């Protein structure tokens, strides 16, 4: 079969602007995806930048104008946590469009799409926060509704260790989107918006407790036609910003719990990476790679089930 195993999308990245943000993980992940035959090079499509017009369907035009022209205030840059540069803006736009395209892949193809980036869940309507310039999830939902005729129910399953405040803010008044955030209760952000379901975990929570809480939280979500899964690496025990104690095996089990549940719902799944701040970036890449492998296996299995029907037509 020559079909793409994984409809992975990647955002092109500029060199790091001398910051701790682990830009290197994106290139390393792409290389390992190919080296370990999780994806062929041709399966990984570069993302175009999201248009300003599309971004304006979610974000305040005054905020976008300051981002576009480099006129962000000192306070805005502090809250964002990254210095402004044209390259940063370009990366944010490409990362956002990657989620749009991965969600389209999920709805149109095997039921799965993955952005090797994205999950910028702290960005609100008029503010970038916590390394997140634009909210890719909100932009993707808007775009799918606007141009792809999608009118189904959406569930955001946010397993980043930091609460998804921007996503909660942007979907607060949208009853068709269920936002679940499962995160460290004592961790950033310290001023929060309210998700449909927020789960505050205490510091040091490990695999068993996490997986139990995740499973019962998914019971409360109930179902969806499209799932956005933020498969972050930062709940890992060695993460610098995480404060939880999940092992790599526990994180792989977490992926399985979410993907199994989405399959049981009959939902298409768009997977995004979100955070990961291991001291050695290779550990973050290990975790992301395991997620991508799980997604690729499920996408391939879905195709093998579907192919006989396709030939019969
Ligand atoms: Zn995070």
UniProtKB/TrEMBL annotation:
Protein name: Histone deacetylase
UniProt cross-references to Pfam families, sorted A to Z: Hist_deacetyl (PF00850)
Domain Histone deacetylase: 24-282
Family as reported in the entry's similarity comment: Belongs to the histone deacetylase family.
Keywords: Hydrolase
Gene3D superfamilies, sorted: Histone deacetylase domain
């Amino acid at each position: 079969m020559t079909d793409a195993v994984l409809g992975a999308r990647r955002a092109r990245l500029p060199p790091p602007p001398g910051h701790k943000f682990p830009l290197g993980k994106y290139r390393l992940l792409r290389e390992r995806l190919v080296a370990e035959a999780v994806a062929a090079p041709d399966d990984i499509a570069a993302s175009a930048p999201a248009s300003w017009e599309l971004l304006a369907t979610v974000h305040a035009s005054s905020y976008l104008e300051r981002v576009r022209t480099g006129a962000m205030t000192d306070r805005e840059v502090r809250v964002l946590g990254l210095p402004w540069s044209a390259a940063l803006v370009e990366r944010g736009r490409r990362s956002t469009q990657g989620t749009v395209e991965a969600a389209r892949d999920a709805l149109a193809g095997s039921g799965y799409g993955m952005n090797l980036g994205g999950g910028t869940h702290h960005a609100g309507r008029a503010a970038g926060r916590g390394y997140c310039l634009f909210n890719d999830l909100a932009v993707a939902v808007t775009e799918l509704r606007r141009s792809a005729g999608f009118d189904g129910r959406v569930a955001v399953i946010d397993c980043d260790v930091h609460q998804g405040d921007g996503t909660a803010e942007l979907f607060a008044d949208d009853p068709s989107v269920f936002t679940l955030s499962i995160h460290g209760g004592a961790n950033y952000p310290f001023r929060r918006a309210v998700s449909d379901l927020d789960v505050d975990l205490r510091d040091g929570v490990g695999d068993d407790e996490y997986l139990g809480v995740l499973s019962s939280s998914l019971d409360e979500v109930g179902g969806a036609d499209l799932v956005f899964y933020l498969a972050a690496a930062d709940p890992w025990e060695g993460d610098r910003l995480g404060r939880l104690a999940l092992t790599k095996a526990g994180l792989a089990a977490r992926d399985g719990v979410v993907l199994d549940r989405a399959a049981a719902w009959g939902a298409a799944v768009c997977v995004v990476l979100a955070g990961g701040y291991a001291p050695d970036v290779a550990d973050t890449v290990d975790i992301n790679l395991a997620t991508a492998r799980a997604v690729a296996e499920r996408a391939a299995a879905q195709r093998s089930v579907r192919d006989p029907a396709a030939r019969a037509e």
